[in-house]
């Protein structure tokens, strides 16, 4: 009797298993498809960022292939890596992190370090904003060849921007900005990238200039050997102070309206340029941050910072766009200004002095890559 009951129970289990397997085979395709759908949505690791992304994490996770998502994640990474590299040089001072939101759409993360041992003021910002273009921006974009219809056009912009003002006059100031724009005009979405990296020394150091420009050229050459000479000249022409007859610094690269050969290739180029900031600049900081300097050199540094302020407030297109954008956050836009600057009436350093030699280069931009080739032959 016991044996018979065991046989019946085993048979029952067997048939139940067979029925379950049959159901699994029947619905296996549907189950696998659903599993694949959910597996696409990957969790974004935010632990390495300075703050949480501006865009909702669920939205970012569900749109990994969109350029808006790729750009936001890239600038978050660049911001964090650069801030941490600067903090290493400071040793003890850390960035203040200010995450803000814009009522009209989007927001940003402002990271500022002030009154440090190495950096008097260092700002590394990202912004991810959307809304309608301010009326003044539309004619400006049309003048650059954008075919935009209407006056209140939906736009999206994401970018990372940094300006580093060191304590020591022998350490140069660096500025970089890399950005992505989308504008919807009618049924068409127009997109482009822009940006650049440039160096503003207070005292000319040939080795520094060669290293900086060579790093940028190598980065450009990986994508197009025509980029560096074109974007180097563009940089010299853009960072110009016409009323002074001099450039703001010794240049670098600058470009705008980049929309070819493809969106992915443009993004790869911009990503590499942003990633080249640390190797182009941090070695210069390490060389000079503890060097001794005089009161004369400090005074000259403050005067050159005055020129920096003049360019940013009078000529810089990015500053103007930010200030005229509804809901603009002025503290973040004016982050590029130094803590201290100076203006002296009719100041002009004598020829032959270190200050005069810098001014000569600022009035007559130099090809630093050719200079490096000549140095290597000697």
Topology (elements, then pairings):
Blueprint: H1 2-40, H2 57-62, H3 67-90, E1 96-101, E2 106-114, E3 119-132, H4 137-143, E4 154-166, E5 173-185, E6 188-200, H5 206-221, H6 227-238, E7 240-241, E8 246-247, E9 251-258, H7 263-275, H8 277-288, H9 295-314, H10 317-324, H11 330-333, H12 354-363, H13 368-377
Antiparallel strand pairs: 1-2, 2-3, 3-4, 4-5, 5-6, 6-9, 7-8
Helix pairs in contact: 3-7, 3-8, 5-8, 5-13
Pfam families: Coprogen_oxidas (PF01218)
Keywords: Heme biosynthesis, Oxidoreductase, Porphyrin biosynthesis
Protein name: coproporphyrinogen oxidase
Structure characterization notes:
With 378 residues, this protein is α+β, with helices and mostly antiparallel strands. The protein has one domain (57-377): oxygen-dependent coproporphyrinogen oxidase (3-Layer(aba) Sandwich), CATH 3.40.1500. The protein is 48% helix and 21% strand. The protein has 13 helices and nine strands. It has helices spanning 2-40, 57-62, 67-90, 137-143, 206-221, 227-238, 263-275, 277-288, 295-314, 317-324, 330-333, 354-363, 368-377; strands at 96-101, 106-114, 119-132, 154-166, 173-185, 188-200, 240-241, 246-247, 251-258. It has a seven-stranded antiparallel sheet with strand order 1-2-3-4-5-6-9. It has a two-stranded antiparallel ribbon with strand order 7-8. α5 crosses α13 (368-377). It is globular and about 60 Å long. The model is unreliable at 1-16, 20-40 and 372-378 (pLDDT under 50). GO terms for molecular function: coproporphyrinogen oxidase activity. Pathway: Porphyrin-containing compound metabolism; protoporphyrin-IX biosynthesis; protoporphyrinogen-IX from coproporphyrinogen-III (O2 route): step 1/1.
């Amino acid at each position: 009797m016991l044996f018979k009951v065991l046989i019946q129970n085993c048979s029952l289990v067997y048939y139940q298993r067979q029925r379950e397997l049959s159901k699994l085979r029947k619905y296996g395709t549907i189950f696998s498809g659903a599993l694949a759908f959910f597996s696409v949505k990957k969790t974004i690791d935010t632990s390495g960022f300075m703050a949480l992304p501006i865009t909702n994490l669920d939205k970012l996770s569900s749109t990994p292939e969109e350029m808006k998502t790729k750009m936001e994640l890239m600038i978050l990474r660049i911001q964090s890596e650069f801030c941490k590299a600067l903090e290493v040089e400071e040793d003890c001072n850390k960035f203040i992190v200010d995450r803000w939101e814009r009522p009209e759409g989007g927001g940003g993360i402002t990271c500022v370090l002030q009154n440090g041992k190495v950096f008097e003021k260092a700002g590394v910002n990202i912004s991810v904003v959307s809304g309608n273009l301010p009326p003044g921006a539309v004619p400006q974009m049309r003048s650059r060849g954008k075919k935009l219809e209407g006056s209140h056009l939906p736009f999206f912009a994401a970018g990372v921007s940094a300006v580093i003002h060191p304590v020591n006059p022998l350490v140069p100031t660096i500025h970089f900005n890399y950005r992505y724009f989308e504008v919807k005009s009618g049924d068409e979405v127009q997109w482009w990238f822009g940006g650049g990296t440039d160096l503003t020394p207070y005292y000319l150091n040939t080795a520094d200039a060669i290293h900086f420009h060579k790093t940028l050229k190598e980065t450009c050459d990986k994508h197009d050997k025509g980029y560096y000479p074109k974007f180097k000249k563009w940089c010299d022409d853009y960072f110009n102070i016409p009323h002074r007859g001099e450039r703001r610094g010794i240049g670098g690269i600058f470009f705008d309206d980049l929309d070819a050969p493809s969106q992915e290739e443009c993004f790869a180029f911009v990503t590499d340029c942003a990633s080249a900031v640390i190797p182009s600049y941090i070695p210069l900081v390490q060389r000079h941050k503890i060097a001794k300097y005089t009161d004369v050199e400090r005074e000259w540094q403050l005067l050159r910072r005055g020129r920096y302020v003049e360019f940013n407030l009078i000529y810089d297109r990015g500053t103007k766009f930010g200030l005229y954008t509804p809901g603009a956050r002025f503290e973040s836009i004016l982050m590029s200004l130094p803590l201290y600057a100076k203006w002296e009436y009719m100041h002009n350093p004598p020829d032959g002095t270190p200050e005069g030699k810098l001014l000569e280069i600022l009035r007559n931009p130099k090809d630093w890559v050719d200079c490096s080739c000549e140095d290597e032959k000697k």
